Amino acid sequence: MGNVAVGLSQGDFSVIMKLLNENLTEGQPPPGVVSKPGADSPEVKEQPVKKGTASSVSAAQGETKAITAPKIPATTDQSGSKLKFGFKLDSVSASLFSGDTEMTKEVCEHDRAKCLGKFELAGFLVEGEMMNDNSMKVKVILKDTSLEDMRPPKQNGITSTIERSPWSRMIQRSKSGSHSGSASPNMIDVSFIQAKNQDKNVDVKINSIHVCVCTEFLMSIADFFVKGMPPAPKEPPQLPSAKKGVKKAPVKEKPKLAPPPESEMSITVSLGRPDIILIEDPSSYDSNAIILETEMMFKMRVTPDATTMGGSIKDLQLYSCVFNKRDSTKTQILPPCEINLHSNAPYGQGQHMDIQMTDMILSISPATIRTLTAISSGLAPAQETEEGSKSSAVPDNLWAVKTLAETNFWFLNFTVPEAEDAAAVELEASGEQPVEEEEVTHGEQGPAHKDVLLLAAPVIVVKLEGGIGKRTVPLLIVETGFQGEVRDWSSELHVESTVNLEVAYYNEALAVWEPVLEPVHENNKRHKWEIAMQVAQNNDVLLIDEDDVDLPIQPPKMSITVKSEDILNTTITKTCLDVLSNLGKAFNDAYNLVEPTVKPGEVMSPYLIQNDTGLDLTIKLDNEFETEDTLETSEMPPQADSGRVHLPAGKALPVFGRRHNALVRKASIIKATQEGDEKKILFQIDQFGVTREVTINRAEKKLFEINKKTEYPAGDKWAVLVSVEASYGRKTISLRSLVQVHNHMSQAVEVFYKKGEKDLVSVGRADPGKSLPLPLPALYTYTSEIYFKPVSDRYGICTNGVNWRTASESGLFPLTCATKDGHASFYMNVNPTPEKVLFEDSSEMNRECLTLNLHPTVILHNLLPFSLSCLLETKIDGGSQDATEEVHLDRGENYALYNASVNKSSMEFKMKYRGLQWTGRRQIQADVPELSIWTFEATNEKGEKKHLDLGLHNKQGSGTLDISLYSPYWMINKTGMPLAYRGNDAEVTLEHPADYKDIVLFSFKAKSLFSKKKDNKEKNGKGTVSEKKTKVKEMKQAGKASLKIRDSEWSDKFSLDVVGSSGTVQCKTKTGSYECGVRIDMTSSGLSKIVTFTPFYMLVNTTETTVSCKEPVDSALWLDVAPGECLPFWPQQTGKEMKLKAKVKLSDEETGPFLINTAHTTLLKLDNEYGGLDVECHVSESAMVTTIGPYKHGCASVLLVNQAENLSISFSQSGVGKTHSLGGKQAVLYTWEDALGKRELVWSCGEKKDERNDLTKDGCGDVFYLPDCKLFWVSFLDGPQRVLLFTEDMAVVGLVQKEVEYTFERIDQEINLSLRGVGLSLVNNINQTEVAFMGITSSGIIWEEKKKRYKALNLKTLVILEAAYQKYLIELAAGKSPSSRVTLENKMEVDFEEMQMYKPHKRGIRRSFVEGVWVQYKTSPHQLQLHAKINRLQFDNQLAGAVFPTVLSPLPPPKSVAADSVPKPFTEVSLMLSKHEHSHMTQIKYFKVLIQEMALKVDQGFLNAIISLFSADVPISREQETKQFEEDWKQTNLPLVEIVGVSLSHGKKNFYDHLHFSPIKVHLSFSLQGGGEDGDKPTAIQANVLNVFLQSVGVVLTDVQDVVFKLGYFERNHSFYNNSQLSSEMTSHYVGQAIKQMYVLVLGLDVLGNPFGLLRGLTEGVGDLFYEPYQGAIQGPEEFAEGLALGVRSLFGHAVGGAAGAASRITGTLGKGIAVLTFDDDYQKKRRQQLNKRPANAREGFARGGKGLIMGVFDGVTGIVRKPMEGAKQEGVGGFFKGMGKGLVGVVTRPTSGVIDFASTSLDGIKRIVDLSDEIRRLRPPRRFHKDLIIRPYIHTEAEGYAILQETEKGRYVDDDYVAHAVVTKDGKNVLVVTDKRIVFASKGELLGQWNCEFTYTWVDLKEPPRVISKGIEVVLKDKEKKKFLFGGSSSKKEIHITDKKTAEWIVEKIHEQMERGR
Question: Is the pLDDT of residue 632 over 50?
Fold first, then answer.
């Protein structure tokens, strides 16, 4: 046969499919599913060739019928040929065209412009021969297949229509042929051979396939077929019958085994290596592509005994590249890996399969994500415009009564099947599903099949890479392994699998992997964290509960259990946060297709050597480097000469590391963390011939001295600093001098050094924001001075140079560059910052390098909401006149004053504000208060002088004085009424007109805002007292303001400083009062508060027409509210009820009155085309907002439907006289007629009168309207519309209930997740401290009893049961035979062997524990259930010297409650929601969140550490500051509707039946003390804002102890909410309460000794006494006495404890005050550390107090001598006299402070004796840190030993590196610690609990290594050690008793290792 070509348009295809559909379905009943074409003619249905089954032969025979018409001849004995056949087709092609075919001519031709694509099969051949003995040979060949994109617009691209283009086809035969084996000329080869014994052999070979996937083209082809299909016929409405629920369980047929095959068959399928290419942009050859390569083989053999299968996917790999530069731009995504399959299925038994995968390593970079996103974007369908979003028109006759024939309610379309009886329907309504008895078979016809699949993927590594272009580096790595077993998938699926996981991030600075998800450390072994998963398919079995037989529970169809026995420990470091942040941004940009800065294919070298020494160098590279052109043949850069490269001064050398192709696998990523990628370079300074070797493996700075010496100072060696910096996989190695200049100014600066005595030589220029390394010759000069000059012709070089040798000692260095033309000089500050660096190859940081930071002297910030101009006047040196400079500053702008000199220059500000020109003048001074007042003056038109007080913020930063001009308060009037404000000064008022839209500046007068000057003297930096130059008023304390609205009286005073809170202010008038809302916010600087006044009543119109509103009083006028507008409303009426009427403007019909001061949602009826107005009143703390919207479906109160035939229903609103009637088979919409009346529907029917329903919740019921006639009613939601349906047919009620209530619906899938525990460690790896540890922990042992499911027993029973069980176990272990059945003291009888309870009830019991995290998630077609628990959450402060070691922890309930209740989790969430079939609305049936009482204890050190961890190291830039200010300013200009927060769009609303979030009770304690941070270190910007705020309002933050926050619960029932509404209401509910309670914390001030705590203690005691006896009485009379005793003890405990605690805090405050008077920082620090350590018991408390008293006296006396000596040592003569002063003061104050501390500590001890609650301790000790700065996985024993070493002898051995430790005694109070330098025997003090050193020996002291003896360890010393008692000689041996021999051997081994290293 020749060529066959078919042209098919979309219209043709649609006609063909329609005809086929009609023909195939003719004569059949209406189908549920359309049969697919050809489904009923298997003999002509061609099977896919790849299956290789015999059916392909029959298909071929079917096609050749017309030619050969073979008939089977009679059988003969000859073995000759019986039949030969053959079929050949040169080609068959099909072209697809869009659109339809025009039937206008006899012969129609398709328009080539509409051609989509062409599919062609070329060279199809079938040959076969059948022999007389029934043997057969058949061969099928397909030479080529192609799919071509024929769309005309595509030109010159990969898929273009140019015939000769190699990429014109999507599918074609690969030109290169198969990569594997011999090349085949055919694309598909199929060979079938059948032997005479019927054994069959099928061989399928697929070769040379090239697939170029263009998603856009494939989507257009798919679109052709999808849109061409005829539309499916509309199915008739479902008629659910009772059969739907009363399903009979299918009777299981007895399994019958098919007879085994009599012959053998083998099938082989091989796929040669295909080219599969995913293209990003098919129109470009330079497009990115992803290429998949693989090779597949499959073999199957069927014999009478078994079926075996084997298959493999070899060399499966993925890589990305630029399409036409594949080789040079190739980036591996998935390196080659293999997947192997083996299967064996013996006859009559299940399949046994095994799938094995080799290591898979997946590298995902942003570039890969970008390519995949671009490819997949072609798959996304075009977004259609949503027409349904517009508001739908109001139906005609909305309120008219309609017959049911006119309606189409889904709930009336049910037809009840006749055959089913009423009992079955009733059963259906109840949700029960009776199951007929099943016929069960147990292997009667043979054993059940047991299918098994084993799946193993030992290593899967996912690398997330970050970087630039091709040079990417793995930043996050996930290493996991998977093992699974699947059983019985053909009957009841069961899966068991385990996954192990480890996650690490790459710390580029150290070039190591550090843990994120840590491995688990158990029994000195480490393994990855493991999680197990089980999947079980459940039988259809009903579980009948014995307690409640009427409620059967169906098990879920499938349950998935995910469980981990390991604790999930994660570590997040500061560097890790940066890595995650950068990765997140890179991947987000890639996903959003942001164009990358470096194009793919551009190559960046991983190493760059920069020569900044100022001298020529020669670099020698080791053989770990390779060439720049990446060819693997050469190893060195092109300019290399025998491995040496000449590098001139100022030049850079890019080099590459050698690539290692072999994959180096480690057992764990983190174990290999120290095996860094080390490379070495040698640099030689040509001028001096000096060579030094540098090792490059991490980011660090090393100093190398060279043999060049300076002349002055004599003998000082020159030094070169080698700085290695790492960024995105590129290491920059800079060789430079010790000093560099960094320019923080916007002005470029030129740098000079002095050569000889006079000549100044330029070094270079430091550009703004850049660094300039100084060359070596510039440093080592006679003077060592560096000079600077702004890059400008106006200024000269600075007069004084900076001596870099002494700069770090001299501190801030001001420089002056004189002007040449009589202008002001240029001023700048040099701030030298030294940095410790390594010396050559040592590990000690004992050298320094220096950065000279250049800063402007003054920066001016305009923090006012308008622009101003500044005139700067500076006295010229030596001249009488002033130099001036004028600067214009926009709002929020800042400007560096380079011509300003502190204490010499003056500023004059001018600004226009409220129509007047204001002026203020001030000298720039450094020694003024941080916050001060600046008064501006202006003259009005009448010539009167006006004054305006503004604030000035002076902040001395690192080298710069920042001066900010601001106003304390911004007043914003959104009320629409004129306002007036006044402060404490009643005479001064500030008017704020209603039409003035700008910000009004307000400040309190000096009397209240600024304190009077108490003293003109203040201490300066040197300790002497000096007079201040000028009197500056200091801002000290804010006052309270009053408000006046129009002509009202002044309101009560209210605070303007309670930032974040809102409330109302009332102003009384003669007739009533005005009320307005106040909200107070703070600007980003923390200096200004934004006070917004809003009307209390507001009207919002969300309709599309103007709405008019009016009060129902005679004098009121109509107020028009335009669409989308929010208007203030000031009511005339007074009283509790504020009413309003509304109408659509230009219409006459009004609504009835409705309330605007009570929360409600009501549809107000209008009998016109608008239908009604939907009014919603929202009430908040500061406003009542009434929103008027249009009628929407569902907003009517109820839809009444009467399905009864001849029965009339009368109904009315309760309290409204008008009654309406609803006849049979009728429906009507109804809304409340009186919006003010009681919302209850009253209905009557026949003899039944006045039935009532509030229409808020679902329900059903029945009434007798006649003695023997029953009427049923059902209330339910149809979408948002409430429906009340009346019917006489019980079946309808049952079916409606079934459709809207899914409570009994069987669960499809249940997922249970349980984690034993979770830990999160927050580590600041920059300063090597663990900041915090958060732990979620499991419970202790609990006992559970089984009712319907297992439930925990109460605590009292649990304790009794556990004690009895332990006794039983002990007796068993002792070899006794105790009775397992025991009667307990609470009369309970249990059997521990059977785990059964017999009394008081017979139930199963079990011993268990509660996991840390437990989540259960269930889904069914119409239901979702979520139940989650967090057992216990604790957040610890891990810093040394923490005041509160535990920050957050749950508080146990009172004793009585705890004894009689089940242990509760810290947090529990329960959610159940329904999804309705007939609407998109979600109904939340039940949503409850429960949080237990908790304690929050925070100290200042912890806060600083947290801020330091999460804030960026780079301070906020000045550009960001301006942006933030602009955002603040924009917030003040928001329209009223946005300030109120009312959404004009109607989002999707959900119905909440029951929503309850529990109250939150928090016990807050705060301390200003706390270790962990250096006091000198400035806090980050967040803390600065807080400090500035506290200072501006004059609040001094003090210690707070145990203040209770009580936040009330949040509950909503039977209400509609959208998500934004609910979240905003919930947030304002809790946050509003928290903020208000925060401002009342003055009750907890430390100075008052916290009497609030005393009251709380007494209250709690009385409360216990009140309710514990009651709880005890419930359990039985004998418990009463016990409860009473417990209550008395509790009262004593809390009363004494409360009083002692108060006294302790009062004395503690006094002690702190006295300690400050010693003026001795060291004494204060030691005292603070001592007091921070809480005594372990009362004895320790008294002992510590006593020690403090004695040491106070001792320190006071010795201080007279010691302090002057220390002072002289530190500060010379001045220090001597200062020290003498401290010593003399200390004689008095230290003993006094010691006495007070003794009282405080002792009283604290009393509180601990009577305290009933167990003290909450840290979950684990802080982690151990290593000297190499690498963060390693946490090991508990290491951390314990490290902590002991840190505390021993008050930190004497902190410089030692901890190695190991062994606990010597059972009580844990004696420990042997091994460090890198010594052994230390530490013991814990009995009284004070401190660690003391009993003895210590360095390695030098030991004569020989210790050895293990029978008693433990023997240490032999070089010198004999004298014994500590009176008699006896001396000994050179020391015995350390360790009972465990293994421990002794292990510790001796560690000592040996360290001694060897020490040598």
Answer: no
- Please choose, from the candidates 1104, 1127, 983, the residue with its C-alpha nearest in 3D space to the C-alpha of residue 1051: 983
* DSSP H or E segment with residue 220: helix 215-228
**Left (φ > 0), alpha (ψ -120 to 50) or beta: where does 1233 sit?**
alpha
Tell which residue, 1651, 1657, 1907, has the closest CA to residue 1807: 1657
- 8 Å CB contact between 1798 and 1817: no
Q: Across the strands, what pairs with 1062?
A: 1079
Three-class SS state of 1646: helix
Query: What SS3 string covers 393-440?
Result: CCCCCCCCCEEHHHCCCHHHCCCCCCCCCHHHHHHHHHCCCCCCCCCC
Strand ranges inside 1354-1481, DSSP E? 1381-1383, 1389-1391, 1396-1399, 1403-1409, 1413-1420, 1423-1430, 1432-1437, 1446-1450, 1467-1475
Neighbours of 860 (CB within 10 A): 24
The predicted pLDDT at position 1355 comes to 86
Cα separation, 1605 vs 510, whole angstroms = 45
Residue 155, pLDDT > 70, answer: no
Q: What is the rounded distance in angstroms from the CA atom of residue 927 to the CA atom of residue 341? A: 82
Q: Contact, 280 vs 287, CB < 8 A?
A: yes
- For the chain, helix (H) and strand (E) counts, in that order, are 24, 107
Structure tokens at 1317: 């525990």
**Tokens matching residue 915:** 């129509």
Q: 558-573 and 529-537: which strand pairing?
A: antiparallel
d(CA 849, CA 807): 12
Give Dmax over CA atoms of the chain in angstroms. Answer: 137
Average pLDDT in the chain? 78
pLDDT level of residue 1665 (50, 70, 90 thresholds):
very low
Question: What Rg, from alpha-carbon coordinates, does the chain have?
Answer: 44
Instruction: Give yes or no for residue 1649 having a pLDDT over 90.
Output: no
Q: What is the DSSP letter of 1231?
A: -
pLDDT in tens, 1905-1931: 899 998 889 998 887 765 443 344 456
Distance, CA of 1644 to CA of 1562 (rounded, Å): 14
Q: Which two tokens stand for residue 477?
A: 């790595």
What number of CA atoms fall less than 13 Å from residue 1746's CA on the CB side? Answer: 8
pLDDT for residue 1339 is more than 70: yes
DSSP alpha helix (H) spans, 1076-1173 = none
Torsion, CA 886, CA 891, CA 894, CA 898, rounded to 10 = 0
Q: 35-76, pLDDT tens digit by residue? A: 444 434 333 333 343 333 333 333 333 333 333 334 434 444
Angle at 667 between CA 665 and CA 668, to 5 degrees: 100
Structure tokens at 1601: 């102890």
Residue 420 neighbours by CB under 8 Å, 6+ apart: 241, 242, 243, 246
Strands 200-206 and 188-194 come out as antiparallel
Cα gap 1926→747, rounded to integer Å: 77
**For the ranges 163-177, 498-512, 895-909, which has the lowest average pLDDT?**
163-177
Structure tokens that stand for 209 in this block: 């396939």
- 497-555: pLDDT as tens digits: 999 999 999 888 888 889 999 999 888 888 999 999 999 988 766 655 444 444 556 78
Q: What angle do CA 403, 408, 414 make, to 5 degrees?
A: 105
- What's the pLDDT tens digit per position in 281-330? 777 777 888 999 999 999 999 999 899 999 999 999 998 888 777 777 78
Please name the residues in contact with 1716: beta carbons below 8 A apart, sequence gap of 6 or more.
1724
Measured distance between the N- and C-terminal CA atoms of the chain, rounded to whole angstroms: 92
